[in-house]
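The material for today's practical consists of a large collection of protein records. There is nothing in a record beyond a sequence line and a structure line. As an example, a complete record with its sequence and its structure tokens follows:
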Amino acid sequence: MERGCPRGGFCAAYCFASPVAGFRQPATAVNRLQMQEPPSATTQDAVFALLGDPATYGLPAAAKIGCHQTHAAIVFLAGDRVLKVKRAVRYPFLDFSSLDKRKAACQAELSINRKFAPRLYRRLVPITREADDALALDGTGETVEWAVEMVRFDEDGTLDRVAKRRKLEERLLAKLAVAVAAMHKRAAPVEPGPWIAALEQFIDNNTLIFRQHPELFSETAIADLEQQSCASLKRLRPFLIERGKLGLIRRGHGDLHLGNIAVVDGEPIAFDALEFDPLIASGDLLYDLAFLLMDLLEFDQAAAANQILNGYYAAARRDADCDGIAALPFFMSLRAAIRAMTTASRLDVSKDAIARSARRYFDLAIKLLAPMKPSLLGIGGLSGTGKTVLARSLAPSLLPPPGALVFRSDIERKALYGIDERERLPSIAYSAEVTQRVYRIIVEKAVRVARAGHSAIVDAVFAEAEERAAFGTAAARVGVNFQGLFLVADLPTRLQRVGGRAGDASDADVEVARKQEEYLTGSMTWSRIDAAGSSAQTLANARAAVA
């Protein structure tokens, strides 16, 4: 049974054929996503009947075999097993029209996905024709079809469904950010030239399909998106070439949206990586991340997107990406536009819902390219005033989406010494010289991010007037709007908060909090924020000051 999904893919788990990252097409194609019939008239119906039969798996006749179809494959769910069969089809962007090609595609899928989800991908299984002319799963006769066998997991555990239930918890998102960063560290660099050149073709593909659907997209809006996309690409091309030289263009997942991430035993696992075209699966690492961020924004999960962005940056520890974030709006917009294009091309399934989804993605693509002024925000205050909680709460609301990068002195100090953020540092690490160095680093990173067109927040004590003034001066040098907030709370409140910390990057304890009462903060030009109440009250006070 085929189930349409208003998000442009299929909501069922293992929806490997949801809209792809992009594709190359012949210039003469009229409808570039319209299926081309394979030259062979061989039908796969008998294979599908076999895999849909409970007896094939030794299950009772009453057992239900799940079946989910897409334009390129059919997935069978039987007990704890999943079998995925490529359909004998040929599109301009993939060709599964022969058994050899389908086998090669299955092998590629198995090989690629074992790098991302080794727990889920088991093996390649033949479907054979036996001596009695009957078909068998994993038999000994002539192979007539191939299937990828996977471990079955809870279909409600894919992150698109979790997000729809508004159950994306911070702990899960923190794990996901670390998992994506680790995935990218393992990804192999590729020759950057072909992928950079293909970006223009991706934009052309989108425009062509959009113009085939005037009932969805106006010509003015199509032309506007195309013009802005091309202008962004032209501006970024030299920058992307440099990132390629740094090895930041790699063979990634290629299809990293919420529907292709499953929660298994509490851990997020990216599956169904794009296997049929290495060029489409490759890209700048932030382009791979952009799919996930864009998808969260489309789900109206801005806070989650911001947490992923900050968690990824913290885990990746790549200073080059302080500049690389300049490309993020274009990357997210292109991902949204490609989603809109591929969604619009599937109007034969749940037409009204698909049309609404296509328009949402299209509108998001335009919105993400709109000019937005970045800002720099300093959040200071003694230990226990709630600086970190406030920074995380404010970050998603600072433009451009998905919000500000947050640089925290406690984490930067631990990174400076090469230790985990939860380990304690010796007292020498808190000398005036080290503190000055940490402040220089975090302010420099924030300014680089702002220069790249993105907002940033610096979270540090900022007890000295000179420290606060230095941040404001650095912001003025790059012509970015700057605002400083200094949180204040009474000593009993601060002691209670510091004493209740667990697993935090800060080494400040009750003794440190008491000593800080002796600090002379000097002339205060930053806005003083009452932080003695709840975190929600502090956030409201801060927002009023920022506004």
The chain has a mean pLDDT of 90. Residues 45-154 form a domain with the Phosphorylase Kinase; domain 1 fold (CATH 3.30.200). The longest helix spans residues 219-245. Residues 333 and 365 are 4 Å apart (CA to CA).
